[in-house]
Amino acid sequence: MDELRELYQQVILDHNKNPKNFGKLETANRTAEGYNPLCGDRIDLYMQVEDGIIKDISFEGAGCAISKASSSVMTTVLKGKSTAEAEQLFKKFQKLITSEPGAEPDLKEIGKLVIFCGVREFPLRVKCAGLAWHTMVAALKNESATVSTE
Amino acid sequence: MIPSANSVSRLDVERIREDFPILRQKVRGKPLVFLDSAATSQKPQVVIDALNNYYQTENANIHRGVYYLSEIATNAYEGTRLKVKETINANSIKEIVFVRGTTEGINLVASSYGRKNVKEGDEIVISAMEHHSNIVPWQMLCEETGAKLRIIPINDEGELLVDEFEKLLNKKTKLVAVVHTSNSLGTINPVKRLVDIAHDRNVPVLVDGAQALPHGKIDVKKLGCDFFVFSSHKVFGPTGVGVLYAKEAILEKMAPYQGGGDMIKSVTFEKTLYNDLPYRFEAGTPNIAGVIGLSKALDYVAGIGYEKIAAYEKELLNYATAALSTIKPLRIIGTAKEKAAVISFVLEGIHPHDVGTILDRDGIAIRTGHHCTQPVMARFNVPATSRASFAFYNTKAETDLLVKGLHNVINLFRG
Questions:
Q1: pLDDT digits over B320-345, tens only?
Q2: Which range among A65-74, A120-129, B324-333 shows the weakest confidence by mean pLDDT?
């Protein structure tokens, strides 16, 4: 049960229930769709990027608590960041959720993304947490095709 | 002592559970509660022993060798064909083709029967509750031939609309392919009625029986269907084996599905003569061990008795439906009057994937997702469901654990 509490922390449950930056962004100039065929999680990501800076970002879609909370938290973290920083964070986040259980996460590196630390105890759910991030990277490259976690 | 009528008809689930070694193990420190038999069933010891025994004492290729082992293996393999024929009451062993599973069986029919008989402008009728394996092969055929796929709608309970089915049939209809028992809704379709209606218009019918056989007796003569397909692994046999039943007169006219060894009488570079039925459709070395295992599985199920199984599962289904209905935010998807022991449900505000992960920590295995029936999910406007599916080795106590587990899920999400 402790691992479950770690995975489904209150912050994650809150983001799941009341996601931030949820809805279509009319001013978006970068969009991508992410899809996890395993469970049917789907996310549409919208970004307004100007001079290499993510001015605004939002998402829509349906998915499990982990994927929804991850999308929500990601949008709050990335707003105002440069695209280079966003790609850096993507790598750090990937490292976090696939790291060995027990390894101490580098708080300075990942900040509030640390709440997804519990995901690494659940290998089947890593894709749920990563979906939004993969979709974001695709949107930055302006890949129009649907991103799949498979 | 003469046992009472009641004790004769009742299934001794505790005794049966001892036949399934996997059910004895603990998962994450908790006793395994396996509620995913609609995905694949567990195997009794006799089936596991049969696989072992085959590889330890009988392994040889079939239909070829003139030596002892090959004879034993061939007899065991062909013996299964006879057993399948008797189990589903086919007319002849010529009508029993071994394939890899239900999926391959349907693909065989789509590819061989379909390509020959379906032309541009023709129509194939399937239902809104088909598994992807009874949708995609027909879509591929339609794409290739220019035929059209027509869909029998279902109501909010998850039942086929038979009147609408009748309306869909016309001169262009070349085949009806319909599921006997829905894997995601549990609905048992009125297959005989559908077959009669289709046959009145000379339209042949394929029945996807993957979920039918584990829950009850199948008689293809009574059903009257032209094709019936099922998988070994869902009837307590090994994976990688399935059966295609097809009426001899139809099979006789069908072109081979795959070419290779065993499906031929003679080969020269100028001309190949194909083998007789059913071997014409079994190219290459088959899953001999798996087929032999299927034989043991069918014996095992028959030994318990199909009627006993059906009665027990009905009891389990009613018990589980009532127990799950006490959970407030839970909604059952698929409430047909005729139902197998399969319960799909959604918990309001909690995604099935989260439900599955949390239950897993209690050792409870259920299936979560779209169950390879995305059109069904779309019909009920849900992205996915959780599904508990039962077999005769499940107990009411396990149902209680599921209910308890679901309360844990709700509590965790309430924070």
A1: 999 999 999 999 999 999 999 999 99
A2: A120-129
Residue B9: predicted pLDDT: 66
Domains and CATH numbers, chain A: 2-148 (3.90.1010.10)
Give dist(CA B79, CA B81) in Å, integer.
5
- Report the half-sphere exposure of B343 (CA within 13 A, side-chain side): 26
* pTM of the model as a whole: 0.93
pLDDT in tens, B39-95: 999 999 999 999 999 999 999 999 888 899 999 999 999 999 999 999 999 999 999
Q: Please tell me which residue in B136, B332, B372, B382 is annotated as part of the active site.
A: B372
Q: pLDDT at residue B211 above 50?
A: yes
pLDDT for the residue A146: 66
Whether residues B369 and A62 touch (CB distance < 8 A) is answered with no
Task: Give how far B357 is from chain A: nearest CA, Å.
Answer: 8
Residues of B in contact with A42 (CB under 8 A): 383
Confidence of residue B5 (pLDDT cuts 50, 70, 90): very low
Nearest residue to A33 via CA among A145, A112, A150, A149:
A145
> And the tokens for B275?
């083998």
Domains, chain B, ordered by start: 5-40+305-414 (3.90.1150.10), 48-302 (3.40.640.10)
- Window 346-375 of B: residues touching A by CB (8 A cutoff) are 349-354, 357-358, 361, 368-370, 374
Interface list for A 122-141 with B (CB within 8 A): 122, 124-125, 128
Q: Which residue of B lies nearest to A2 if distances are taken between CA atoms?
A: B361
A64 interaction partners in chain B (CB closer than 8 Å): 351-354
How many other C-beta atoms can be found within 10 angstroms of the C-beta atom of residue B415? 10
CA atoms of B353 and A63, how far apart (whole Å): 8
Tell me whether residue B372 is one of the annotated catalytic residues.
yes
Residue pair B236/B204 in contact by the 8 Å Cβ criterion: no
Taking the C-alpha atoms of residue B362 and residue B409, their distance in angstroms, rounded to an integer, is: 11
- CA neighbor of B23 nearest in space, from B34, B15, B14, B12: B34
